[in-house]
Design a protein that fits this description.
The complex is a heterodimer.
Chain A lengths: L8 E4 L7 H11 L6 E6 L4 H11 L3 E8 L4 E7 L3
Parallel strand pairs in A: 1-2
Antiparallel strand pairs in A: 2-4, 3-4
Chain B lengths: L1 E6 L3 H13 L1 H6 L2 E7 L3 E3 L18 E3 L9 E4 L2 E5 L4 E4 L4 E3 L2 E4 L4 E2 L7 H4 L6 H13 L3 E7 L9 H15 L6 E6 L9 H14 L1 E4 L4 E5 L4 E4 L4 E3 L2 E5 L2 E2 L2 H5 L8 E2 L13 E3 L4 E2 L6 H19 L12 E6 L5 E6 L12 H19 L3
Parallel strand pairs in B: 1-2, 1-9, 2-5, 9-20, 11-12, 11-17, 12-13, 19-21
Antiparallel strand pairs in B: 3-4, 6-7, 7-8, 10-18, 14-15, 15-16, 22-23
Helix pairs in contact in B: 1-8
The chains are: A alpha+beta, B alpha/beta.
The complex binds flavin-adenine dinucleotide.
Chain lengths: 82, 379
């Protein structure tokens, strides 16, 4: 599915430990309009779970979570809602 | 001659200047090396003191010390403000006194508070992250008899990840001692799904919060504050009423960094271990302004200063630098007004907080007292 998602904004948080990736995404989403598609890249395995949890809580839409390599890093695709 | 310029005379810049004075003493004496430290004021401000100001246990005057008394005399200390950095020409512009050229530059400009990023926060909230804020909060707390005290961690990353947890636990005990705790509800909010970024610290603090009746709201990212209605609204769509709001405001790095193309948000993009800037040659960053995968803490600035001093000493002598920073971070965490715990961790090692005790509390106070000796390089 992710093959077909082309994000408007890519946030590369590889190298940052939790909660860095989630905070990076939150900071960017704060300034974005509804309907913006984000790709958050993280190699922190706990962020790959925590970020989707926040996305749901904040009422945005989780489009996909794609693992690259063998846990090398994850791409988390999110579309913002009002 | 090798010219080393350090910008920022806080914890990181001062420790670095003194370490260089020590390591390069003969070279400085021969005039082969010159170390210049530039700070935008004559005093260093030791921010950990501010945690105690709201509770009347310290004054903001105690947090200040003249930098000339702290740095070695072989260091050329200048009171001036750096207004721009040209990393191609290796030159800094100064507000008062022209320009300064360098062979090696170290940025140690710390972090700034950016409360205006959240509408209503400046009018509606208090903080203890600066001298004026801490004093204002002391007065507000003194008059606060009953109601809802909310401590909201808005800025991540922020200086001293322990301070918000410490503040609520100290407030809890301080109010108990004054017989007011029953009339005050305390809520602590945090942006992610647990009460602290470091999982072991969250697991350590949660039962202490439960024991003391400190409520926690997680996944809580304030978007705006209504100072008239006294309500916080979050990105997650929740609202929280408060009577006294203490916020850890959003932080930003240095505008110099952004303008010089050294990193986003004013934080210098550096190698986690060598602390060398990624976007320029012969530039290092230490302390809060460096974007590394650990906390913004004085201990981090201190250890980083040690590693960069070793690297610069090697470079000044024409050797290949090998010293690295391993992510070492050390914090004392107050868990009330008379007990504290101690944590230590690094890039590879998670912290293991133990039960708080009085001995560590006295250790923290003693460290704060002796801090000026460590900055001088005597401890
Ligand atoms: C309430 C509170 C409690 C804390 N408690 C602890 C604790 O218990 N333990 C701990 O380890 N850490 C603690 N910290 C964090 C600690 O204070 C900082 O991490 C530390 O000061 C960082 O040092 P630094 O050298 O990077 O920056 P700073 O100490 O902030 O120094 C930066 C210096 O650079 C100067 N400067 C900035 N821009 C320019 C310019 N353009 N030109 C010239 N000069 C400039 C500034 O004026 C300042 O003097 C606490 C912080 C706060 C706010």
């Amino acid at each position: 599915m992710s093959e077909s998602i082309s994000p408007d904004v890519t946030v590369d948080s590889r190298g940052a430990a939790c909660p860095g990736p989630l905070m990076d995404l939150i900071g960017k989403i704060k300034q974005a309009d509804a309907g913006t598609v984000f790709e958050l890249q993280t190699n922190d395995s706990s962020s790959s779970h925590d970020v989707p949890e926040w996305v749901e809580k904040a009422g945005h839409e989780l489009l996909d979570v794609v693992e690259h390599g063998d846990g090398e890093y994850w791409s988390i695709f999110v579309e913002t809602r009002e | 001659m090798t010219r080393i310029v350090i910008v920022g005379g806080g914890t990181g810049g001062t420790v670095l200047a003194n370490r260089l004075a020590d390591k390069l003493a003969p070279d400085l004496k021969r005039g082969d090396v010159e170390v210049t430290l530039v700070n935008d004021g004559p005093d260093q401000v030791y921010k950990p003191t501010f945690l105690y100001v709201p509770f009347g246990e310290a004054t903001v005057e105690e947090a200040r010390h003249p930098i000339v008394d702290l740095v070695d005399r072989t260091v050329d200390f200048r009171v001036d403000r750096v207004t721009s950095i040209d990393t191609d020409a290796k030159r800094l512009s100064l507000q008062r006194d022209g320009a300064l050229e360098y062979d090696y530059l170290v940025l140690a400009t710390g972090a700034n508070l950016a409360p205006d990023e959240v509408p209503g926060l400046v009018e509606g909230g208090h903080h203890f992250y600066g001298a004026a804020g801490a004093e204002k909060l002391r007065d507000a707390l003194a008059e606060f008899e009953a109601g809802h005290l909310v401590l909201s961690v808005i800025g991540v990353p922020h200086m001293c990840p322990a301070a918000p947890v410490e503040f609520v636990m100290m407030a809890d005990q301080w109010l108990r001692e004054r017989g007011r705790r029953e009339d005050v509800d305390i809520t602590y909010t945090y942006p992610i799904q647990r009460i602290h970024g470091l999982e072991p610290v969250a697991e350590w603090a949660q039962p202490l919060f439960d024991e003391r009746g400190i409520e926690a709201e997680t996944f809580f990212n304030p978007e705006s504050v209504d100072p008239d209605e006294r309500v916080i609204e979050t990105m997650e769509g929740t609202e929280l009423d408060y009577d006294l709001l203490v916020a850890i405001p959003p932080h930003s790095g240095s505008p110099l960094v952004e303008e010089a193309g050294l990193g986003d948000g004013g934080w210098v993009a550096v190698d986690n271990r060598t602390l060398e800037a990624e976007h320029a040659d012969d530039v290092y960053a230490i302390g809060d302004v460096a974007d590394v995968a650990t906390s913004k803490a004085g201990s981090v600035a201190h250890y980083q200063a040690g590693a960069v001093a070793d690297r610069l000493a090697s470079q000044a002598r024409g050797q290949v630098p090998t010293a690295e920073y391993d992510g070492k971070t050390m914090c004392f965490v107050e868990s009330g007004t008379d007990e504290a715990a101690f944590i230590e961790f690094s890039y590879e090692r998670q912290p293991e907080p133990r039960d708080p005790n009085q001995f560590v509390h006295w250790g923290k106070l003693a460290y704060n007292e002796a801090y000026w000796l460590t900055a001088r390089g005597l401890l």
